[in-house]
Design goal:
Elements: H1 2-24, H2 28-35, H3 40-46, H4 51-59, H5 61-69, H6 71-74, E1 76-81, E2 85-89, E3 99-101, E4 114-122, E5 125-132, E6 136-137, E7 140-141, E8 150-155, E9 160-163, E10 179-189, E11 194-203, E12 209-216, E13 222-225, E14 246-247, E15 250-258, E16 265-273, E17 278-282, E18 296-301, E19 304-309, E20 315-321, E21 328-334, H7 335-338, E22 347-351, E23 356-360, E24 365-369, E25 374-378, E26 392-396
Antiparallel strand pairs: 1-2, 1-26, 2-3, 4-5, 5-8, 6-7, 8-9, 10-11, 11-12, 12-13, 14-15, 15-16, 16-17, 18-19, 19-20, 20-21, 22-23, 23-24, 24-25
């Protein structure tokens, strides 16, 4: 048996050497192109094959650009489970995809006292916050989402982590009893090549609005307040406290706006340019008057802004907006196949060239075959014996960006 095992190891090593020898004969441009198509876990293994591959994957700017342009191919799924576990999964096979546990990044965080919430996933970095656990009271539950304990940024691939400094006293956000809502977002400033954490605070008084920014730039990293009345009033009604909708240097939210000469409100999309630190408005594909609970979602698909309309009882329409182009309806899915009633709303995660569309819902991840009109489901609680809550799912493209270099 030992000889057999050693023989296999020797044979594997010989095969690996043959692959490297063949690859080294290829032009550098072709090697970069091949490596940029690999999924995250395969890419991580490739850094250990030889020094030249490690250098390409970790430092080559052409490789980095190609990889992000091909993110629909290499996208993994990041899960946050039970408010105290982090792991990611490549969704290889239903019910048997291996989970990569990221609990080592939570060292020093008491998950019995604090809940975790992912604020944003951008360019391979994950930003999450900790909040005191919600304690049941005799008259309802307290909303501890306004009581931020700490912010953290991690890179699961380079295995780096960073806890952000506390708010300086000069940027007091006020008593939580006077706060109506907060919004958190994380993204990348393309012009200045820095990551930014955006933090909105809305008081009970409609005139009270604050915008705080944390810029991640090495020793110059800091919190600051954006002065002036720059935050539009309708940002107060944003649907999500942390939506993680980042496209081409801008963050996005769904919110409501009052129609002229009417008390009705319509849905609009607000954007925030991280370079200019300015807001913009994007119209939805179709006019939506808010008269009931909204069944619309924002997502990112093929590096483009995506609008999901689940208002119909039978179908889910998915619209895509590429750059400055108009909205295009790209998918019309049969709701009974991808989103049974108890599964809740769906949001696309990635679309593969073989015609498979991955979508998340409240209970699982669905893989929809566009050609066959069939769906396969991945149990995202797989391996979790408690199964007492459902995870949040985020598209994730691994990178070797160093947190300490920004």
């Amino acid at each position: 048996m030992r000889r057999t095992k050693l023989g296999f190891r020797r044979r594997d090593g010989e095969e690996r050497k043959k692959v490297v020898i063949v690859m080294e004969k290829l032009p550098q441009e072709l090697i970069i192109d091949i490596l940029s198509r690999l999924p995250t876990l395969s890419l991580l293994q490739s850094t250990r094959v030889c020094r030249s591959w490690h250098q390409i994957i970790t430092t080559d700017p052409i490789f980095t650009t190609l990889r992000y342009n091909r993110s629909p191919i290499s996208t993994d799924a990041l899960f946050l489970t039970n408010s105290k576990r982090l792991y990611f999964n490549q969704l290889i096979k239903p019910h048997s995809s291996p989970n990569i546990d990221l609990s080592s990044f939570l060292h020093g965080i008491n998950t019995e006292r604090f809940d975790l919430k992912v604020i944003g996933v951008c360019n391979g970095l994950i930003c999450f916050a900790t909040f005191p656990k919600v304690i049941p009271r005799a008259r309802g539950r307290t909303n501890n989402f306004y009581r931020v304990n700490s912010f953290h940024i991690i890179n699961p691939i380079s295995k780096e982590k960073l806890q952000l400094p506390k708010f300086p006293k000069s940027l007091k956000i006020g008593s939580t009893s006077k706060i109506e809502s907060m919004i958190y977002e994380f993204g990348f400033d393309k012009r200045n090549q820095v990551f930014k954490l955006v933090f909105f605070v809305f008081g009970l008084n409609e005139n009270v609005k604050k915008l705080l920014l944390f810029t991640l730039e090495g020793v110059a990293s800091r919190w600051r307040s954006v002065s002036g009345n720059v935050v539009p009033c309708m940002m107060r009604y944003a649907f999500s406290n942390a939506s993680s909708i980042y496209v081409d240097g801008c963050l996005h939210w769904i919110t409501r706006n009052t129609m002229p000469n009417s008390t009705d409100r319509t849905l609009v999309i607000m954007s925030f340019n991280l370079s200019d630190e300015a807001f913009g408005v994007i119209q939805t594909p179709e006019l939506v008057v808010v008269d009931h609970h909204s069944v619309h979602e924002l997502a990112v698909l093929d590096n483009s802004l995506c609008w999901v309309d689940s208002e119909s009882n039978n179908h889910i329409n998915i619209w895509i907006k590429k750059g400055d182009e108009s909205w295009t309806r790209s998918f019309c899915l049969q709701k009974s196949i991808v989103a049974p009633p108890s599964f809740g709303p769906v949001t696309p995660i990635k679309f593969e060239q073989n015609g498979r569309l991955f979508l998340k819902n409240r209970k699982c991840v669905a893989c929809y075959d566009v050609q066959d009109n069939t769906a396969t489901f991945f149990d995202v609680n797989y391996g979790d014996p408690q199964r007492d809550s459902y995870p949040d799912v985020f598209p994730f493209v691994g990178s070797f960006i160093s947190i300490n270099s920004h």
